[in-house]
Amino acid sequence: MFHELNIIGNVGSEPIKRTLANGVVYAVFTVAVNKRITLANGEKTERTTWFRCTAWRHLAETVSEFVHKGNKVFVQGEIEAPRPYLDARTQEPRANLEVTISLVKFLDSRPDGHSAASEAALAGMPALDGNVPF
């Protein structure tokens, strides 16, 4: 079953790029999505949901080069079935939320010099040189 997911959040870890035995490259990084809520007693708090994002092939190469911890990003991809586990510290049940990504876009002001070409590369598409055919 295919479940497409769109998230906006902050990159929580530098991408880790690896290569499988067959030469296929992948990169993994985390994204934190924060939600502000008001509790029944009126107290405001924030909840964070973490997503483990995996990019493959060309997208993995560009993710490993341009995505950095702290970037605010839009990520689109296919969510995998959650994998439950027991938190070793608190003994509370948790789940890993994993996303195989197909698109990444920067949403912050890009003080580190990212260009439109790098965003196009992150989307797995060639950069446009200004000669738009329409």
Rounded Rg: 17 Å
What's the rounded overall pLDDT mean?
82
| Beta-strand percentage range | over 45%
- Per CATH, which architecture? Beta Barrel
Helix and strand run: EEEEHEEEEH
Number of helices: 2
Task: Describe the protein.
- Helices cover 13% and strands 48% of the residues.
- It has a single domain, classed as OB fold (Dihydrolipoamide Acetyltransferase, E2P), CATH 2.40.50.
- Residues 125-134 have low confidence and may be disordered.
- The strands form two sheets. It has a five-stranded mixed beta barrel with strand order 1-3-4-8-5. It has a two-stranded antiparallel sheet with strand order 6-7.
- It starts with a strand and ends in a 12-residue tail after the last helix.
- It is globular and about 55 Å long.
- The protein contains two helices and eight strands, in the order E-E-E-E-H-E-E-E-E-H.
- It has 134 residues and is mainly beta.
Short structural description:
This protein has 134 residues and is mainly beta.
What tags apply to this protein structure?
OB fold (Dihydrolipoamide Acetyltransferase, E2P), two-stranded antiparallel sheet, 48% strand, 2 helices, 134 residues
Describe the SSE topology:
Elements: E1 4-11, E2 16-19, E3 25-38, E4 44-56, H1 57-66, E5 72-79, E6 83-86, E7 93-96, E8 98-106, H2 116-122
Parallel strand pairs: 4-8
Antiparallel strand pairs: 1-3, 1-5, 2-3, 3-4, 5-8, 6-7
